[in-house]
Amino acid sequence: MAKRVLIRGLEAGSAYLAYLLRESGVEVDLLTANPADPLLDVPPFEPLFTLDFIRDVLAVRLVQEPEGRYDVVVDSCDVFGFEEVKRALASDKVVYVVGDGWLSASLSLYRSLPVPDVDVDIPVEKTDQFVEISVKYRPYVGGDYSLCSARDAWGGCLYTPMRALERIYAAVDIYAAIMGMEAPRRRLKLEYAVGKDRFYAAIGCRPEGKASKINLESLQVWMYGEGGRPKYVFIQGRVEDSSWALAMYNLARATELAFLLDFGLGGRGALNLAYVGHLFRGVRDK
Is the pTM of this model over 0.90? Predict the structure, then answer.
């Protein structure tokens, strides 16, 4: 078990990892070039912790240079310009966060506005009239683990995780690896947008393969893939459905057969229906 860990970069995932390590008695230094408070994701999500809690309660040291020897180095990224996103929440304009269409969609949906007509395909009203703002990520590289770079297990693409929840889930994986515990240790790209009553999520790099659509009560699921292997899943439903969707996402990180386990007291779930009915056609043909 590691006794001293350096985490490079301040965001929601690195903050949660620091919390888990400190609760386990590990000494943590958090190196950041931006010692502000960028831990907020857009509503309805709340900050995990305040910086005062991280520093004063957990006794995590925020440093500008590594000091001494570390058993493990974890790379994340510093987030710059998130203040613009916070200000956008108070405006009545449609905002496009350059390079992050899903964050832009969440901003608009939360304020009951149309979403920018850019690089996100969500079945809601869109507009080409929007204001551009920027959020910058400064990644750190070369450590033993990374929260700010990943390779999607389904499509193989390299990408930077943008959503706070994906980094938080990855933080749990890294914590488990450092502590010698069992963890999924494979990444699936996760994007999501949340309105006041609707939830949208996409799992995977891009839509590839054959597609099927399942309607089940308030849920709609599009699943892409072939030969028994999923490549991409798009989900829309009520905000109340988000916990189920995120639980299934985490199960899919752990096993290729995740969607066969999508059962509840009401019977088969939407992902079970989509996976068996669609993707298993290719298996039967072999």
Answer: yes
Does residue 279 contact residue 227 with C-beta atoms inside 8 Å? yes
Chain region(s) in the chain for CATH 3.50.50.60: 4-79+136-179
φ, ψ of residue 78 in degrees (nearest 5): -85, 145
Helices within the chain (DSSP H only): 12-23, 51-52, 82-89, 101-110, 164-179, 242-254, 270-274, 280-284
Partners of 267 in the beta sheet? 264
d(CA 152, CA 190): 9
Bridge partners, 143 (sequence order): none
Give CA–CA dist 127/45, Å, rounded: 25
pLDDT in 10s for each residue of the chain, 286 residues? 789 999 999 999 999 999 999 999 999 999 998 887 666 676 667 777 888 899 999 999 999 899 899 999 999 999 888 888 888 888 999 999 998 999 999 999 989 999 999 988 898 999 999 999 999 999 999 999 999 999 999 999 999 999 999 999 999 999 999 999 987 778 999 999 998 789 999 999 999 988 889 998 889 999 999 888 899 999 999 999 999 999 999 999 999 889 999 998 889 999 999 898 887 776 665 5
**Cis peptide leading into 44, omega within 30 of 0?**
yes
Q: Any idea which architecture 4-79+136-179 has in CATH?
A: 3-Layer(bba) Sandwich (3.50)
CATH number of 197-284: 3.30.390
